[in-house]
Design goal:
heterodimer, A: 408 residues, mainly alpha, 19 helices, 0% strand, globular, B: 159 residues, alpha+beta, 5 helices, 26% helix, Na+/solute_symporter_sf (chain A), transmembrane helix (chain A)
Chain lengths: 408, 159
Amino acid sequence: MLLDGGVHALRVAAAAPAGTSAVLLELGVVLLVLAVLGRIAAKLGIPSIPLYLLAGLLMGDGGFIPVSAGEDFLAVGAQIGVVLLLLLLGLEYSPQDLQHGLRTTWQAGLVDGLANGAPGFVLGLLLGWSMTASLLLAGVTYISSSGIIARLLDDFDRYANRETPVILSLLVMEDIVMAVFLPIMAVLLVGASLVQGAVAAGIAIAIVAGAFFISLKFSAHVSKVVHSHSRELLLLSVLGLAFVVAGLAEAAQVSAAVGAFLLGLTLSGQVADDVRTLMPPLRDVFGGIFFVFFGLTIDPRDLVPVLLPALALAVVTAATKVATGMWAARRVGIGPKGQWRTGVSLIPRGEFSIVIAGLGITAGIQPQLGPLAAAYVLILAVAGSLMMRFAARIGPPSRWVPAALSRS
Amino acid sequence: MDIYETPLPGVGVRYEFTAESGDRVGIVVRRDGKRDLGLYDREDPDACTGTLELSEGDASALAELLGGTNITARLESLRHQVEGLAIEWITMPTSGGLANRTIGDGHIRTATSASIVAVIRDEVGVPGPGPDFELRPGDTVLVMGSEHAVGHARQILIG
C-alpha cells in the first residue's frame, strides 16, 4: 500500500504539464535576480525599484535573457503586486489622516497637481499623443513615490524634522487625488466620449466619496468582521477580500488598483495594524515581480528614441517639484534649508508612475508611453534619491536664501 | 510648558517642545510603538542634529530614568487593549460644576457609568478617590469609560 501511495504521488508529479520545470526554473531565476539586485541597491543606498525595472528591461524580448515560459505567472504576479501595493498604501492612512490632509493641504495639493502634471501633459501633446495618453503622462509626472520617499525619510532620520509633515501631507494628497484620477482614466481608456467621461468621472468620485464615508463612519465594523487573532485566517480574509474587491472593480472598469486602495482605506484599527506588520514582505516580493514584469513588457530598443524627452521631462518636473515643495513649506513657516529639503524630497517618482503607465500599456493606447515612463522613473527614482541624500550639500542655491539667513 | 502635537500621516505623531535652556526637543511616536527622539539644530531649527531611535521599552526605561511617571504609558497600553475605551484628563474650573463639592455629589458613576480613576492635585496623584473626596479648583480628574459616558461626566464635572 505504501508503495502504491508513492507511485501514485509520482504519477501526479509526472502528470504536470511538460513545461513545469521550465516555469519553475525561470521564476526561480527571476526571484534570485531580484534578491541580488535588492542587496546591491541596499549597499549603494538607492531604492530597489529602478534596479528591478532595469532587470525587467534586460530580460524578455530584445533583452539578453529570454523569459517566456513563466510569463503567464509573472503577469498574474504583477497584477497581485499592484493590488498589494495599493492595499497597503490605503492601510497606511487612517481616516483621520485623510481628513486632516484634505483640510490642511488641499491648496498645496492643487498647486502640486498643476505644476507637475502640466509638463507631462504638454509633452504628450507635443509628441502628438492623444488627449488620454497625455493625461496619463501627466499622472506619471505628477505623483511622487510615497514608497521611496517614506523609506528614505526613515533611513536619513528625518521623521522628527519640522518640514516632514509637509512632505507627508503632500504625499497623502497625491494619493487621494490618484484615487479619483485612476478610475476616471480607466473609463477614458475604454474610449468613452466626453459626456460618458463626465458621467464616469462623477461615478468615480461618488465611489471614492462612498469609500471615504465608509472608512470614516463604519471602518470599526468592517474591521471587526475581518479581524482574526490567527495570522493565517487574517491574511486569508484580507487577501481574499482584496482580490474580490479588486476583481469586481476591474470588472466594473474602475481598475483593480483603485479597488484595493479603497479597501485599504476602509480597513483600520487593529486589522490595519496587524496587516501592516504581516503583509509588507508579501507586497515587496510581488511588487518586485510587478516592476520586473513592467520592464519585460518593454523592448529596451524602444527606450533609445524616448531617452531625450524623458531626460528633459525629468529635469523640468524635478524643478517643478522642488518649487512646489518649497512653496508649501514656506507657507507653514519652514526656514530656507527646510524648504529646500522639502522640495528635493518630492523628486523621486516610482511605483505609482509605473502603475499609471501600466494602465496605458494594458489599454494599448500609446506604444511610447511605457518606454517613456520607464526611462523617466529610472532617472528620477535614482537621481531623486541621491539628491535627497545630498540635499544639504547641494542646496539651497544661495541666491534663494536671504543674506541674513544664509550665514554658515 | 506647551507641547505641540503634529500628525505625521502614515507614520505616527510628532510632539515637540522648547526646553528651558532654549533647546527644542521633538519626539516622534510611530504607529508601531517606536520612538524617535530628536534634538533640533540651533542654526537650522527645522532639522535635527541627531536622532535617537528607541523601542517602546527603551522609551519607558528612559522616561523613568528621567524622572517621569509611567502612568501615561500604562494608560496607553490599556487603550490599545480595550476598544472603545475613552480616557480623559479634566481640569476643574474655579467655580461651578463639582468644584468644591464631593465626587459623590455628582452621581457620576450612576448617571454616566464613567469612573473617576484618579485625581491629581499639585503634582500628587490620588488613585481611586472615594465618593466623599472633595474636588478643588485646578484639580486634574482622570475619567475613564465609553466615549459617551466620559463626555457626559465632563459636563457634570465642569458644569
